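I'm curious: can you give me some protein's one-letter sequence along with its backbone structure tokens because I've never seen that pairing?
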Amino acid sequence: MPVERPGTVHLLLLLLIVPAQFLITVYFGASDTEKNSAYHELISSLDRFTDRYLSLQSWQRWVRDVVVKTVSLFSSLMSRAAESEDSVAVEVLNYRSKHGYFADSLEPRSPREATIKYHIGEVIKHKIYGYRGVIVGWDSVPKAPDHCLKANHPDDKKHWKNMPCYLILVDIRDRPRVQKTYVVEENIELLYGSILVIHPEIEEYFDGFEATKYKPKARLKSLYPHD
């Protein structure tokens, strides 16, 4: 017993049957075999079109895809909204070139102060937020706009104003967007071993990875000659 077709397909067949018969008669000759073959091919094409675009399953797939993409976008936006630490510093990186803020001074760090614990190219982990990153610059004391320091340095951390700060390329596996942070020395720890960081700007600073750290490009090495 033939399966009853959906109403939409019945309508399509009714609309197409007359012009289809005319076209088949004109372009496929008078042979009944050729006509029947053409009719069957037309019906098969309509079935394939229906299954792909008009069936309940196709609409269910489309709704499922929309829901998945919407949930993914919402999760990403929520993750961004949840980020707090260092966000002020990230938003004002346009100050860097003009004022030398956030370890962007073009003055070579020479001699290297004994208070500087870490080196450019070393891979670190944030002690509080857990993200990984690689050091691409440092200041012997924080250099940032006053409102950034006030927002990121709590009242019970007065000693941070005299502590080195490091510019970090954050591993994009640990934070959902491309990001740099400016972190006080007390909040980072060194990661040992061949640990690679994924960040789209990594090749702008380094010429590959050697042993336990990244090898700085000539421009970066000239700014940190003793690292």
Observations:
- The first strand starts at residue 123 and ends at 126.
- Residues 1-6, 74-93 have pLDDT under 50 and may be disordered.
- The domain at 83-223 is CATH 2.30.30.390 (SH3 type barrels.).
- The helical segments are 7-27, 32-54, 56-82, 87-91, 96-99, 146-152, 202-205, 218-223.
